[in-house]
Amino acid sequence: MATMLKVDNINVYYGAIHAVKDVSFHVDEGEVVTLIGANGAGKSTILKTVSGMLRTKTGSIEFVGENISHTEAHKLVYKGLAHVPEGRRIFQQMTVLENLEMGAYIHKNPTKEELEDIFERFPRLKERRSQIAGTLSGGEQQMLAMGRALISHPKLLMLDEPSMGLAPILVEQIFDIIKELHKAGTTILLVEQNAEMALKVADRAYVLETGSVAMSGTGAELATSDAIKKAYLGG
Amino acid sequence: MTFLSHLINGISLGSVYAIIALGYTMVYGIAKMLNFAHGDVIMVGAYICFFAVATYGLPPIVGVLLAMVVCTALGMLIERLAYKPLRQAPSLAVLITAIGVSYFLQNGAQLLWSANNKMFPNFLNFGGKTGLSLFDGQLTISWTAIVTVVACVVIMIALTLFTGKTRIGKAMRACSEDKGAAELMGINVNTTISVTFAIGSALAAIAGVLLCSAYPILVPTTGSMPGIKAFTAAVFGGIGSIPGALLGGVLLGVIEIFAKAYISTQLSDAIVFAVLIIVLLVKPTGLLGKQIREKV
To answer: Phi-psi category of B136—alpha, beta or left, where left has phi over 0 and alpha has psi -120 to 50?
Structure first.
């Protein structure tokens, strides 16, 4: 299987704070890979570095064989990288449809088929297409954020805490969608605090602790590992 | 009749404020900065048009277009040289830079064109008449006033369509809401900011010509007071809001003219600002200001 994303020995700082330390990992085509770990472990920082919003001091980030560690964020979208940021960050004052249009910005305008695709996957968005996005519920906003990323046909979809702040039933729904996307062949890099759910859908997982990779393995391996159970899965 | 005449003058002056306020409000909306040099871009536009028409004898419309081209370039240049390097700097640094740019433009104009008054020509003179006579000559509406109001309405409609319907217009709105998220959509935020400055500055050129057509004394500080008034209008209407700029501008113009006509010429500016303070006390976001709601 071809490597989609190869992160090699990156170090990221926020001023004096060393947030990500010597982290390396990779994501193969068609895989769902998850980064799990506690609050402040550096998971979101890693995603932001991959998508070009932050810079690494060392090492390299390769995306489909190309070093992207110095490429500007907006150019990476054209290369097929979609990042659904933490807190969803939908455009609150724009309509649902306009949000999707922004998602398809790199293709000028979304085609009818592209919109239908998204509406088929997220029927709620179709009902609310002309509604101002800020009035959607948390779950709907997450679906909009995911739809907005998927409409650009990304090679790699990066999701940052999609379950954050959602009711359990909605969390289930979001993870069902991730499973469906996986089945359809989408490559996904998932950052989650909800380790239990994340390990269930992931092919492979990396456990982060205070900025470094503490452990890695297949989702199933880690889900049964004693250390993980103790630290993240409540015994 | 005099009341009607004052009202028309007020709306016309307010339309100029509204066009200037648009530049403030659009730049604030997207770059979250107050571009205090905006008023001086107006002055540059007026000078360019003045020289094109009065010195080189070009047709007025060419003068206006030339002023728009020069101001657009100037606005983008100011953004690129003075503001872009400060994108990550604290907002006070940017504010002080903007004030610096403002003085730079005023002093530059003084150096190039001297501090002497220039009499701005009246272009709008049809068959020897400078206005439209109504009610057997009891009420005269100057062509300048008519053109100003029409220009303001056309600009408003055009901008509303631009931000509502076009791809780059929507990208502008996206950037004004969340630059990081906009970047993740593939929108080049720097280019979008640059386009916003270009549009605001082109509008400033139009405002400069309209302003000097109504108040024809042109000096290097011509833009500074209207600039501050238009900024007030933008805050009055709700900064960041395009309809707010229109409403704030027109109201400010009408209040100013009425205060001059019925209360006191000297106190008119004080009255205008007193009204602003009262509005802000009652509604801190301005008349049409957006309430920023955060949903996590």
So the answer is: left
